[in-house]
Amino acid sequence: MNVGIGYAIALICIFGAYIIHGGDIMVIVHALPTELMAILGGAIGAFVVSNQGKTLKAVKAALPTLFKGSPYTKARYMDLLGMLFEILVKIRKEGLMSVEKDIEDPHSSAVFSKYEAIAHDHHVMDFITDYLRIMVSGNLNAMEIENLMDIEIETHHHEGHSPAAAITRLGDALPAFGIVAAVLGVVNTMGSVGQPPAVLGGMIGSALVGTFLGILLAYGIVAPLGTLLEQKLDESSKEFQCIKTVLLASMQGYAPQTAVEFGRKVLYSTERPTFQELEESIKGKK
C-alpha cells in the first residue's frame, strides 16, 4: 500500500510541476517506449550478468513482499512470546525430554499448533526447534549456544541483504544508462543536422528524456525498494534475536515469565507489547 502511495505522490508531483510550467507531456510520452527499452534493457541485462542465480531467485522472491504490510506486528510478537513461554513452562515442569516430540513434529505439537502464524513460518520454527534440540542433547553450554546463534543470525542477515544490495546496485546504475540513452539520442540528432530547427529541437528533447528517465527510475522507483528491503530484513532479524534472548535466559536458570520478559525488551518499541499486556497474556496461558 505505502509503495503505491509513494510512487503516486512522486510521479504526480514531478510531472505535475512539468505541466504547470508549460511542458508538453506528449514529448515525454512519444520518447518513452524507446528510451525505456534502452535504459531498462541495458540495466536488466547488466543486473543479470552481475548477480548469481541464487541472488536473482532471492530478488524474485523478495519483490512481492515489498507490496505487503509488515508481518512483524505486536500481535505476532505476543504469539511468539506466548509460545516460548508455554514451551519453557513445559520444560520446567516435566523436564527437557518432555518437548522432544514437539521438536521432532512441530505441526502435530499441541503447543506449536496453537500459534498458526508462527508455526507456518519455517525459518522461525527451524530456529526454535534446532536450538531446543541442542538444549535437549545437553552437549553445549549457554555460551557456546549463544555463539552459534549469533553466527546463524548473521548468516540470515547476509542472505537477506543480498537481494536488497542487488536492487540498490541496479538503482545506482540507472542514471548511467540514462546517459547512454541520451548520448545515443544526441548521436542521432547529429546525423540529422540538416533538418529544420523544429525537428532538431524535438530530437534533442527526446534525447534528454533518457537522462531524465534514468535519474527518475533510479531515485524515485528502484532505490527506495532497496531501502525498504533493508528495513524488512532488520525486522526479521529482530525476531530471531528475541528468540535467542528467551532461550538463553531459560538456559541460565531464569523462570519462564522472566525469560520472556527479557525477550520482550529486545523488540522495537513500536511493536513491543507492554509489561502489563505480556503479563495478562501469560496469566491467561497459565
TrEMBL record:
Listed Pfam families: MotA_ExbB (PF01618), MotA_N (PF20560)
Subcellular location: Cell inner membrane
Stretches that traverse the bilayer: 5-21, 27-49, 173-193, 199-222
Membrane topology recorded in Swiss-Prot or TrEMBL: Multi-pass membrane protein
Residue span(s) of domain Motility protein A N-terminal: 5-95
Stored InterPro entries: Flag_MotA_CS, Flagellar_motor_stator_MotA, MotA-like, MotA_ExbB_proton_chnl, MotA_N
Residue ranges annotated for the MotA/TolQ/ExbB proton channel domain, each copy included: 127-241
Keywords annotated in UniProt: Cell inner membrane, Cell membrane, Cell projection, Chemotaxis, Cilium, Flagellar rotation, Flagellum, Hydrogen ion transport, Ion transport, Membrane, Transmembrane, Transmembrane helix, Transport
Coiled coil residues, start to end: none
Family: Belongs to the MotA family.
Annotated protein name in UniProt: Flagellar motor stator protein MotA
Species in which this protein is naturally found: Vogesella aquatica
Gene name linked to the record: motA
